[in-house]
Amino acid sequence: MLQYVTTNEGKVREARDYMACEQFDFDYTEIQSDDLGAIAAHGAREAYREADEPILVDDAGLFVDVLDGFPGPYSSYVEDTLGIERVQELVAHEENRRAAFRCVLAYCDGKEFAASPDPVDRDDRALAAAGDEDDESDSGLPVKLFSGTVRGRIVPPRGEGGFGYDPIFEHEGTTMAEMAVDEKNAISHRGRALAKFGEWYHERQAARTE
Fold first, then answer.
1. Which SS3 state, helix, strand or coil, does residue 12 take?
2. Which is the catalytic residue, given 59, 121, 124, 138?
3. Torsion over CA: 34, 103, 101, 6 (sign)
4. Phi, psi angles (nearest 5°) of residue 18
5. 112-147 tens-digit pLDDT
6. What's the CA gap between 116 and 99, in Å, rounded?
7. What is the pTM for the complete model shown?
8. Nearest to residue 178, comparing CAs of 169, 187, 189, 190?
9. For this UniProt entry, which segments traverse the membrane (predicted)?
10. Best CATH choice for the domain 3-209 from the list 1.20.1110.10, 3.40.350.10, 3.40.50.300, 3.90.950.10
11. Is 59 a catalytic residue?
């Protein structure tokens, strides 16, 4: 059974719209990197070693154009330390308030992948980023990556729903926090990545049963 590594039950419910999966509560090492793919790939390798079952890990962030992509992969830390209102204030007087939510899903099942448009992470850059070039415990495992992006702009907080940066991220006139759950999932960065992964995953499962 596919294991989705997360402590957020809402993510699992969203993922189940695309494929069967179970929640796997595992605290993998979250390396410091500017690359969402490197972070997710490292987590997928580590979680696969722990579970010995197919693993799905996601990493996501808010990328603000005028802030050169900040907070990006550090979005969770910035939310906890500065708060979303402070991020909104940083761009409140800027003409360019464009931003994007981005998500990368990393899948590892210990096997190789056939060629497809979605990239495969083979070189565990996470080890180098962590300063452990001589540690090969998680190297050599290919990880398939799937990305999703939704563009919008930063606005003063509106709405009571969602979580994280949803109240300050407006997409086509509505903040994520103002959207119903189904409406948000249909256009979200994670939903778009899950849709790509779900289609590919079902094809992979079907090929194995032929």
1. helix
2. 59
3. negative
4. -115, -25
5. 988 788 889 885 454 444 444 444 444 578 999 999
6. 28
7. 0.86
8. 169
9. none
10. 3.90.950.10
11. yes
